[in-house]
């Protein structure tokens, strides 16, 4: 017991040494400077200097990032480990003070950030991560990047400030050229599933910006990681209609700020969601909690694009989902079932399980064709007292 | 060695058990429902129900947050530990993918978030954290909250995506009624100090919103944690002037969004900084890196306030700081030393160490008195190639 306590008290030193030994091949490469594709003899002084600077820069970055070149099974720094017989990834996270909203529950944006983070750390552990944003070595060679085409997140229960979570993530095949990535977010203490998510990814040529087939070389890298398990069992995918300018809510002239751009120089996914949700009136946001969001991505949004966010409450959604059982009662009582009227109505609210649904569209302002950035659908339930 | 490796491979299970045993007093309280300050006999059914709901809610939250009621020395979940002879706190963090900007270096906003997070985790470890935003049990009893009056962050080097950091934080006395909190951010691998920060905090009555003396009860709680060490040695504090509407840059009609509010229902500090920095033209932000920011807080900003952000380049700053040595040369050559002209000037840029300085003001729109939210000063240096 004494030895055990001592180990528990000095975890950082112990793990530090252990980590160093196991996955720090880059450390050694600092003194070894290789100039890629450059013959030292034929370079001018200036070329030589810039090549050296460039290589030194990459080496320093490699050392500081410490990206492994072979598969790792445990990462103490990120509190991550390989699961699912060697192909899935689990990471433990604590909800931080700035990841929660005024009600102390984690924001949807923080959830999306954590999904991105664990996905990238999964690739990190695989030994396949090149310098790109989740791209493998094979993808780098073919000048390919990942782009997300669909994302769905279901939230049953919002974690609170200080709560400890386990996030599992894994990948699977999606058709011939795509990849599915799923996640499960659980309470570390009880194992209760708080949220689940699924997404579909395809490859795009970084230069031409056209979608690409999956090269055999890349398939060989990632297919061994594919498993069949699905976090969300998809029924037939329901079509999300394209909204037009008759949509009930609209925010115009949205301009990406420098701080909204990610490592790919694109407007971050999280910013999309913020723009979408901000069209919904505050009093609805305050009284409701998002339970589901589906995003269908259509095109990239760059730093100079001006964006419109459209939003339409979905009256059908109310009828079909939450009030399926209560339809007759409501009609008998002569209530309009429009989402806006339901909101705050004591009688109907007492049914407790009615849901609001919204259809969303983000589009580039001023373009008539190919103007859609992302279509979305959100579902909301009335907030209960407990977070 | 064999035992050692085994422990290293299964850290989560081991630490989980260890943690549970040491600081989970709340877990036991789930079945014990106590109604604070309510006589069960005199309550109506409704009162009773709401009291029970309220207590059940608090208990559930306590269990999920697991805030310790006695001092802890190690927190494996947050990778934190008590240092400095029992009064300081150190936490290891890995820079996450969404905490960096387009250049893969951590954003100032993420740094500020991490400072807040480690400060709160320090209080968490102390066993003094009540349910508030860093408030102690004594502060809760006196209905007091912390408000920050001054914050200064110096960044020498920006960590990059995936880099492992150690953040140290500790507190000291500031006058009779205030508290100083300092931080050091270091590379975990090399020990190199990347950033340092200091801040001053005072207490405010939550109801009256007036500043308060530090009650003896609170002093008794926190004074044992005070140490003298300072992360930034302050010279005489330079006054930050109040800008007026003649300021060169101005962003008007800034409205806090729901997602900008923190647990205290106030506009988050990080949002203030974003508003400040967004007044600086993009081409300057792209070519420069912030090396220092000072914030002087004057009043709270609520969710319904409309905010103006003013910004003035500081010509004196250039003369006094970066170009102290080059002043004569520059004047001889007839160059204007205005910050805007220096920017992008090949000749002067070759001096390499010139700095830009800006004075900032966030104010409530439409109020003539007591309209200042925060005054600021930022200092910037030219970006080098390497992050």
From TrEMBL, chains A, B:
One example GO MF annotation: fatty acyl-[ACP] hydrolase activity
Protein location: Plastid, Chloroplast
Entry EC no(s): 3.1.2.-
SUPFAM superfamilies hit by this protein: Thioesterase/thiol ester dehydrase-isomerase
Enzyme class at the top of the EC tree: hydrolase
GO cellular component, one term: chloroplast
Residue ranges crossing the lipid bilayer per the database entry: none
Superkingdom as given in the UniProt entry: Eukaryota
Gene3D superfamilies: Hotdog Thioesterase (3.10.129.10)
CDD domains referenced in this protein's UniProt entry, alphabetically: 4HBT
PANTHER family: ACYL-[ACYL-CARRIER-PROTEIN] HYDROLASE, OLEOYL-ACYL CARRIER PROTEIN THIOESTERASE 1, CHLOROPLASTIC
UniProt similarity note: Belongs to the acyl-ACP thioesterase family.
Function comment: Plays an essential role in chain termination during de novo fatty acid synthesis.
The protein's name in its UniProt record: Acyl-[acyl-carrier-protein] hydrolase
